[in-house]
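Worked Example 4.2. Consider the chain below.
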Amino acid sequence: MKDEQKVESWTCESCKKIFRKQESKILECERCKSHYCAKCVRISDSEYEFMTARKDIHWFCEECDKKVTQGLRIEKDIELMTLAVEQKLQVFTTSMEIKFRDLEEKWEKRCQRMLVNL
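Applying the procedure from the previous section yields the following structure tokens:
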């Protein structure tokens, strides 16, 4: 029995070409994990080198990019709604604190009058 080395390969989702060389210019979508060759996504060699050299650059295939963009918009909307609710709660809390303080003062005055009348 021969020892067969398992060769890693990637198939471009667009052109269906199989790439086996480590130096192949293949991008992996961070969301769906599908692979695309640089030629199909129309990026130059220098753009590919730049993107793969940086860990802070994220790449998504066209379909996932739409979903990620939509998700970011929704996240921003939620953030803005949360901020608005927090502001309304702050106004409400301040209003309630004033009302409770007023009630406490009225209650204390009433109690004092009752004690004086005893």
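The mean pLDDT is 91. The first helix runs from residue 45 to 53. Compare this with Example 4.1 before moving on.
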